[in-house]
Amino acid sequence: MVDLKRYSNFRIGGQAKYFKEAKTAEEVIQTLQWAREKKLPIYILGGGTNILWSDKGFDGLVLKPDFNFIEVEDFYLTAGASVPMSKLIQAAVSRGLAGLEWAGGLPGTFGGAVYGNAGAFGGEIRDIVVEVMSLDTETMELKKRNNIECEFDYRASVFKKRGKEIILQATVKLEPGEKRILYESMMAKINYRKRRHPLEYPNIGSVFKNVPVGNLDKELADPHRLVVKTDPFPVIPAAYLIDKAGLRGVSCGGAMISPRHPNFIVNVLDAKADDVLALIELIKEKVKEKFKIQLEEEVRIIN
Ligand SMILES: Cc1cc2nc3c(=O)[nH]c(=O)nc-3n(C[C@H](O)[C@H](O)[C@H](O)COP(=O)(O)OP(=O)(O)OC[C@H]3O[C@@H](n4cnc5c(N)ncnc54)[C@H](O)[C@@H]3O)c2cc1C
């Protein structure tokens, strides 16, 4: 049994029945075969910065790939799925390679960022990915996909849609840049996050996706009616809707809707997953009531 709190940036969750870190594709395959024989459900874990584990824990195998290499050839950077994004950006910036600065301060792993097409400050991982290698957990086949085949979408990819593959490594293509300018650009993002995000409390980032304006009825999408920002296409920030629904600072048990950034729920005092889920439901209900907009979770909720 392993305490999942240790593997969530939220510091919330029960216990996993089995937990395995795997350093090679062979080790991943062996572990998957073992789990299959035991008929265990599997969950793939990256850095745990976007996951809400259940208070009941996970009655199966949590598999954490531990692929930690970075290789650079000309403008191509290939890295293992478990490389923290902070290390990846550092590797690019220190070599004068541009294209990753938007991810300054983005927590989590490279694999997690590919899985969810992570994005910030107008950039997204899909802008730079040229190849992803993954392992199909059912057929045990290795797959290589180019950018188009990854089917990237707003906070989504083929890996998220299929939910049956482990990302092992990926390659990004960068551009030449000036180290000092890249460094300053990366630091500006890190500092912006420090100012705007409630990083003093355990959290899993923005709980809800922003609302693409294109998905809304004409009347609701009227930019004069609601605030719109670019993300990298026009969206209504979920934080704005939650704020206008009067929910800033509302709490349940040990969890609170952050007064600083209302799309963050923070663990202020030994919160339970159920406290967070109650706040998620409250937000969805109130925003629907006030704006007729159905918010959709960005975070992964594991029941
Ligand atoms: C303070 C804070 C700020 C954040 N800001 C942003 C932001 O600006 N933009 C943004 O997009 N996100 C943001 N996030 C959310 C989060 O950092 C990203 O979604 C990140 O990419 C998740 O990576 P991870 O490794 O932590 O994934 P995890 O949380 O471990 O997992 C997330 C999902 O990815 C899957 N996954 C992870 N690794 C693999 C793999 N190797 N193969 C297959 N599936 C995998 C998991 O199964 C799970 O479904 C923020 C989070 C925090 C805490």
Which blocks of ≥5 consecutive residues have pLDDT under 50? none
CATH class of the largest domain: Alpha Beta
The overall average pLDDT, rounded, is: 95
The oligomeric status of these chains comes to: single chain
Radius of gyration: 20 Å
**Which hetero ligands occur in this complex?**
flavin-adenine dinucleotide
Question: What is the helix/strand order?
Answer: EEHEEEEEHEHEEEEHEEHEHEEHEEEHE
End-to-end separation = 17 Å
Largest sheet: 5 strands, antiparallel
CATH architecture assignment of the largest domain: 2-Layer Sandwich
According to CATH, the fold-level topology of the largest domain is: Uridine Diphospho-n-acetylenolpyruvylglucosamine Reductase, domain 3
| Percent helix range | 25-40%
Q: How large is the count of helical segments? A: 8
Identify the strand order in the major beta sheet.
6-7-13-11-12
**Fraction of residues in β-strands:** 25-35%
Content-based structural category: alpha+beta
Number of strands: 21
Tell me the number of structural domains. Answer: 3
Envelope shape:
globular
